[in-house]
């Protein structure tokens, strides 16, 4: 009887070792996926940090925006979004249309009048 018990013990140990090997492979695969996900998350964080920095800079430029520079109107779109100086000019419709267009970005601005 003792020999039979030893054989069963060997069988049990073999089954348990096999299961442990399967678990090792499963967790190794999971670990690899977590590492890939971690790299992606770090890239996403860097992307979001750059976006926050850009938004912060644009907010500061918006706060410091001055509409008239050297008797010309400056485009708020160019100044705030890109940090560039874009000058506005009257649109081809003429002064009666109350429209101005940026020479750099092409944005049109319509100015309401009290007339």
Give the key terms.
3-stranded antiparallel sheet, two-stranded antiparallel ribbon, 12% strand, alpha+beta, rod-shaped, 2 helices, 115 residues
Question: What is the element layout, followed by pairings?
Answer:
Elements: H1 2-63, E1 68-69, E2 72-73, H2 76-82, E3 88-90, E4 99-102, E5 108-110
Antiparallel strand pairs: 1-2, 3-4, 4-5
Strand order of the largest sheet: 3-4-5
Which percent bin holds the helix content? 55-70%
Q: Give Rg in angstroms.
A: 34 Å
Low-confidence stretches: none
Strand element count: 5
What is the CA–CA distance across the termini?
A: 112 Å
Shape: rod-shaped
Average per-residue pLDDT, rounded, comes to 83
Number of helices, counting only DSSP H or I runs of 4 residues or more: 2
Task: Work out the strand percent.
Answer: 5-15%
Q: What structural category arises from helix and sheet content?
A: alpha+beta
Main sheet summary: 3 strands, antiparallel
- Tell me the domain tally: 2
Encode the helix/strand succession as letters.
HEEHEEE
Please summarize what this structure is.
By secondary structure, the protein is of the alpha+beta class.
Question: Would you give an account of this structure?
Answer:
It is built from two helices and five strands. The longest helix is centred in the N-terminal third of the chain and has 62 residues, at 2-63. The protein has helices at 2-63, 76-82, and strands at residues 68-69, 72-73, 88-90, 99-102, 108-110. The chain has two domains: 1-64; 65-115, no CATH class. The mean pLDDT is 83. Helix 1 runs antiparallel to helix 2 (76-82). With 115 residues, the chain is α+β, with helices and mostly antiparallel strands.
């Amino acid at each position: 009887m003792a020999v039979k018990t030893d054989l069963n013990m060997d069988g049990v140990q073999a089954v348990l070792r096999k299961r442990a090997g399967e678990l090792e492979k499963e967790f190794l695969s999971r670990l690899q996926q977590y590492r890939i996900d971690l790299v992606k998350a770090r890239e996403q964080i860097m992307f979001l940090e750059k976006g926050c920095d850009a938004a912060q800079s644009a907010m500061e430029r918006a706060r410091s925006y001055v509409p008239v520079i050297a008797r010309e109107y400056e485009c708020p779109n160019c100044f705030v979004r890109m940090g560039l100086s874009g000058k506005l000019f009257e649109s081809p419709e003429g002064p009666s249309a109350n429209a101005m267009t940026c020479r750099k970005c092409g944005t049109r601005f319509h100015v309401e009048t009290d007339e």
